[in-house]
Design brief:
The protein has two domains: 1-30; 31-172, Glutaredoxin (3-Layer(aba) Sandwich), CATH 3.40.30. Helices cover 41% and strands 21% of the residues. By secondary structure, the chain is α/β, with parallel strands linked by helices. It has a five-stranded mixed sheet, with helices on both faces.
Amino acid sequence: MFQKKILISVIRSIGILFLFINSSYADDKVFFPGTIFDIDGEIISIDKLAEDRTICVITVKATWCPVCREQLIRIRDQLADFRRCNLTFLVLVPGGPEAIKLLQEKTRFPFPFIQDKELRIAGRYALDRPPAEIFPAIFILNQDRSLRWMHRGRGPDYYSDQALSDYLDCTNWI
């Protein structure tokens, strides 16, 4: 009798946990801000940009990160392929404006760099690493600014551009 009560309690607990897990993710969408400022103070309307482009956000761990710098250069060198997919980029970076501008100059990455003050945007995607770093990732936004796809992580022997290329398959676009 006692074992039956325990079994019923365990089954109920699992059922409640299942409902809780499913309900917390089913309708919870995370949205990228609709309007942002780039490092030069220019206003970027994400809604307008998404009307005719697919937006890809590249996060940078920190301005001093050599792997992140190399990632931007690798993507820059593949821009012809990514343009086939009608892709545009935003670079989300923690740190001060001067260091971010220096990173932009060193990489010659021709897309907007966004200072993520207080890691507020990164925090929406659980990519914040307080006090001053962002978890390296690449993600693509849907037209409504919700998350379509994300690849987390990069390192000296693995860069995220390959995962992005595999996901988009731009070389096979007509």
